[in-house]
TrEMBL record:
<protein>
    <recommendedName>
        <fullName>7,8-dihydroneopterin aldolase</fullName>
        <ecNumber>4.1.2.25</ecNumber>
    </recommendedName>
</protein>
<feature type="domain" description="Dihydroneopterin aldolase/epimerase">
    <location>
        <begin position="25"/>
        <end position="137"/>
    </location>
</feature>
<dbReference type="GO" id="GO:0004150">
    <property type="term" value="F:dihydroneopterin aldolase activity"/>
</dbReference>
<dbReference type="InterPro" id="IPR006157">
    <property type="entry name" value="FolB_dom"/>
</dbReference>
<dbReference type="GO" id="GO:0005737">
    <property type="term" value="C:cytoplasm"/>
</dbReference>
<keyword id="KW-0289">Folate biosynthesis</keyword>
<dbReference type="InterPro" id="IPR006156">
    <property type="entry name" value="Dihydroneopterin_aldolase"/>
</dbReference>
<feature type="region of interest" description="Disordered">
    <location>
        <begin position="1"/>
        <end position="20"/>
    </location>
</feature>
<comment type="pathway">
    <text>Cofactor biosynthesis; tetrahydrofolate biosynthesis; 2-amino-4-hydroxy-6-hydroxymethyl-7,8-dihydropteridine diphosphate from 7,8-dihydroneopterin triphosphate: step 3/4.</text>
</comment>
<dbReference type="GO" id="GO:0046654">
    <property type="term" value="P:tetrahydrofolate biosynthetic process"/>
</dbReference>
<comment type="similarity">
    <text>Belongs to the DHNA family.</text>
</comment>
<dbReference type="Pfam" id="PF02152">
    <property type="entry name" value="FolB"/>
</dbReference>
<keyword id="KW-0456">Lyase</keyword>
<dbReference type="InterPro" id="IPR043133">
    <property type="entry name" value="GTP-CH-I_C/QueF"/>
</dbReference>
<feature type="compositionally biased region" description="Pro residues">
    <location>
        <begin position="1"/>
        <end position="10"/>
    </location>
</feature>
<comment type="function">
    <text>Catalyzes the conversion of 7,8-dihydroneopterin to 6-hydroxymethyl-7,8-dihydropterin.</text>
</comment>
<dbReference type="GO" id="GO:0046656">
    <property type="term" value="P:folic acid biosynthetic process"/>
</dbReference>
């Protein structure tokens, strides 16, 4: 379960805090080939990474207006995520997850994001299906 972002403080002193949005926009199974890892062969050969993101966002303005500029264009976001994953190799998938979270939070209407980075071909010496990290970040 993802942590809810904190309430938005009211603009008027007598107003009650506005509850964070409960709406979610989810992208699952975004695939990228990148060169992250601590071993030389990971940096040299690369491997697949699979990304899931869940955005906490108020979808009512977009739904009410039928206007894509009032939401996050998920096609554009998916391309941005792949570009971020494939850029600048790092040692840890935790670092990749932070990079993706920061990218998602730059989209204006996003209040919080949960990012999972899967590394299904990680160099683990026993049989396994997947290894992943999941982080949740919100606006400060």
């Amino acid at each position: 379960m993802t942590a809810a972002p904190p309430p938005v403080e009211p603009q008027h002193p007598d107003a009650a805090p506005i509850a964070p949005p409960r709406d979610r926009l989810t992208l699952t199974g975004i695939r990228a080939h990148a060169h992250h890892g601590i071993f030389g062969h990971e940096r040299r050969d690369g491997q697949p990474f699979i990304i899931d993101v869940e955005l906490s966002i108020d979808l009512a303005p977009a739904a009410g207006s039928d206007d894509i500029t009032r939401t996050v264009h998920y096609g554009d976001l998916a391309v941005e995520i792949v570009e971020a994953v494939e850029a600048d190799p790092v040692d840890l998938i935790e670092t990749v997850a932070e990079r993706i979270a920061e990218l998602c939070l730059r989209h204006g209407p996003v209040h919080a994001v949960t990012v999972t980075v899967h590394k299904p071909k990680a160099p683990i010496p026993v049989p396994f299906d997947d290894v992943s990290v999941t982080i949740t970040r919100g606006r400060a």
